[in-house]
Amino acid sequence: MFKRAIVRVPCLNLVKGLTTIDLGVPDYQTALIQHNQYVEALKACGLEVIVLELDNSYPDSTFVEDTALLTKHCAIITNPGAPSRRGEVQGIQSVISQYYSNIEFIKMPGTVDAGDILMVESHYYIGISERTNIDGANQVILILNRYGYTGSLVPLKNMLHLKSSVAYLENNNLVASGEFVNNPEFQKHNILKINDDESYAANCVWINERVIIPKGFPNSRRTIEDVGYLTVEVDVSEFRKHDGDISCLSLRF
After folding, report:
1. Is 161 a catalytic residue?
2. For residue 69, what pLDDT band results from cuts at 50, 70 and 90?
């Protein structure tokens, strides 16, 4: 069960953020409205939400998930793969230090975006991507091992982040799309397949018996609800324009 979430208000420079797709330029005022709705969805799942002020120095800073991995026993401050994002970790560290006494760090030449790390009970799948390299992933595993956790590597072929196309919903249910549907690493779980035309919905988050999913993907919502979950839809269309997903916008612990 989760108690809290950390989010950061989108900054005015959001339009200058990184993106690998061409879905247009985010509308800032709409992004603010959507972010507020996202915060309300987190609260509806029973979380205390810690809202950080916007930071115009870092256009992608609203995507706080990439900056840290928060476990029950320790916090790991990452070293984001995009150089323009590495300064974001300082602001996150100062907040996390209020809640964690055990804080670990990923060091160069290792790079890690926590969007590449999927927690499944006490095991962590770590995607090897353009943003997370093998050195960084191995550092994460060594740290996790010290706290009684395990980890394994999952090479990515097409996706930006591991969690772009896979999510764990507890009770052995794993949402997956694209290259991860038949990935041998995940076959021990009950795969909830998301079709390619709704692949964006594969990034969703389980929070205290509810699942927050992006708005506008009815077949995916039905797939999740059919196995017994309550869903909460949130429109994150403006964040999608800059590779942002449901999970990207918060750190949950």
Report:
1. yes
2. very high
**In the block, which residue shows the tokens 């985010």?**
26
Closest to 126 measured CA to CA, from 190, 74, 170, 185? 185
- CATH says 4-157+233-252 is which class? alpha beta
Binning pLDDT at 50, 70 and 90, where does residue 46 land? very high
Residue 219 structure tokens: 């077949």
Type of residue found at 55: D
Q: What residues does 192 pair with on adjacent strands?
A: 175
pTM score, two decimals?
0.97
pLDDT bucket at 103, cuts 50 / 70 / 90: very high
* Distance in angstroms (rounded) separating the CA atoms of residues 65 and 229: 23
Which of 120, 209, 122 lies closest to 162, judged by CA?
120
pLDDT in tens, 188-233: 999 999 999 999 999 999 999 999 999 999 999 999 999 999 999 9
CA distances from 71 to 100, 203, 228 (A): 10, 20, 26
CA gap 211, 224 in Å, rounded: 8
DSSP state of 11: P
Residues 35, 161, 204, 242: which is the catalytic one?
A: 161
Residue spans of the domains in the chain: they are: 4-157+233-252
Helix or strand holding residue 107 (H, E): none
Distance from the Cα of residue 54 to its chain's centroid: 19
Q: 178: which 2 tokens?
A: 């694209």
Two structure tokens written together for 164: 């772009």
